[in-house]
Amino acid sequence: MKRSKLSRRITWRVLGIILCFNILIIGAILLFVLEVSLMNSSMRGKYVTDGIAGNLENMMYVAKTGTFNNRLEVEYNMETPEQVFNSLEKILTVNTHLKGCFAAFEPDYFKGQGRWFEAYAYRTDSTHIETKQIGSPHHDYFNGVWYKRGLSLARHDNGYLTDLYYDDCVNSSMYCSYVVPLFDRKGNKVGVYGIDIELQWLDELMHETVNEVKQEFFIDKDDSIETSDDDIYFSIQIQDSQGNRIAGSDSLDTNILKNKQEIISKELGMYDLLGTPYYISTSKIGQTDWTLTVFQHREMVFFWGVVLATVILFFMSIGGIVIFFFMSRSIRHATKPLAFLSKSAQEVAKGNFNTTLPTFRHNDEVAQLRDSFDTMQQSLRQYIEELKETTASKAAMMSELNVAHSIQMSMLPKTFPAFPNRRDIDLYASLTPAKAVGGDLYDFFIHDEKLFFCIGDVSGKGVPASLVMAVSRTLFRNISAHTDRPSHIVDSMNVNICDGNDNCMFVTLFVGVLELKTRLLRYCNAGHDAPFIQDALLPCDSNLPIGVTTDMTYTEQETTIPRGATLFLYTDGLTEAENASQEHFGMKRITDVITAFSGSPQELIETMITAVHQYVGETEQSDDLTMLAFKLN
Amino acid sequence: MTETYKIDRALDSFNYQQVQSEILEILEKGSDVIIDMTTCNYVSSTGLRVLLYSKKVAAAKGLKICLTGISDEVKDIMNVTGFINFFDYA
Asked: What is the pTM of this model?
């Protein structure tokens, strides 16, 4: 399994949070920047339109008022062509801002001048003024729109302002003219008077403004290169009331103004020209019916915003990397002690309880963990020490018990067949202690053609019972060497056991002496379970177990065992063998086994043991289990 | 003064130490004990030893212990072991 690192997890988590916030912040900044970009462009548009339109309006106003004043000068001096030329020259001399002025008369107004007479005065440079007559069949001004429109006006009407035009008669420049009708003293219209308004400055102003803006945006391109609309980032255009283009800083197709517009800023008058990449700001030019429009390309509007956003993104990325670097370093630094601790813990887990734990400078959670760990280590060490001692002493005790077990077992006759040289008796016995040593006993021997046997159960289990068992077995051997009367044997044993029996240990005991020739069995039962003779219980008197009281005389009984019959003796470890539900094996099951059985004593006892094992299953053996059986042939 | 001590279910190797110490406690107070065995249906050899030991301790103190409510099962056990005539009954 790949081990995951805590520091890495924390780092990624914190970084994730920072990233989320960064994205939010960048989003907000972008929105703000876009808003500011639009606002900035609106202001720029308004500044440019107001500036140019204002200039133009002022100029028009001055030109108009001047025209009305100077008309009088012409009207008073139109007796002769010379007078007209003089007055025009005079007007130019006084109004230094005028480039030229003219007076065109009705056909044949001056006799001898022919059909056409248009007097024109103009400046050649700042000091010289020239005059000439320019009416001729080639310059048939009667059909000129300016003449017709000028002549159609009443005296109190505003003059007529012509469209802009390039005049290359005098000097190649952009002009427009303002014309008013001339009246003679009788009030008859006799011609028109007009002035030339040179608008070269307008062209220059527009180009200058465009260039300024372009420089601001590093779009340092030559105008001539701007051939396609795509390249025009900032444009100023002037249209007349019909939407026809009058003048402009470039050749942008003003027909796109017919597209739908979406308002961006009402106060600053900026609109999004849908379907085009332009935002427009428009302004009416006073004194005229012209409209000035500033076009700003989307790329230009958002140029600084995009630059700013890129810069912010760049620095935020740099910042993110720096934060990641320092954060992962400091988190690694902070979690390093944990790795040390983990290493120490593994050492301890391997059993090296003397592993030195790392010490930490700060008294933080990690140090507290270390202290807890230290305490645990000490407890573990102590516990293991105790466990070692306990285990050692237990092992010693177990080995002692094992020795005791062998000693106890060696007290019992265990060699089977017990009497290999005899055909008349077949005897088998088995003892299984519940613990290492137990309180059950059996014994048998043949002496003087008599089979002495006994089976007994000391109250209780384990070592205390085993001591009494050893005493009882020794007593049986010793006493039965001197008497063949079971009641005497039991009596003597009782007296001996009772002597100094402060713990009230008692022994249930069955002692029998069988004369093998006559098959006469004399027996004495001291409180033990009655044995089976074949499948019936041997009748037994109710006698107290030995060790209870010396005020007891044990009764003796006798019976003759039929040839071929089996006598089966057992202790209560058989009847009271418990299964998992704490239910006893019971007399009935014993009886069932015995009834169904025919065979040797060894087979009987083995069958019984198997039956008990099946009954108790996995349950721990609750009491010592002892059986003795013999068969007379 | 007499106190009744009740043994439930059984008196065997599982509870003999507890029963013995509790009976001895009553005897320590100088009280006779009536052991109520109405609900006790089994007494093992270890249990019999407890009764026997308690009787001896009581006799040494000049006190009495008697049994009551002995079930048939327990009576059988007492019969087999011959203890039936050894105890007094209330």
From this structure: 0.52
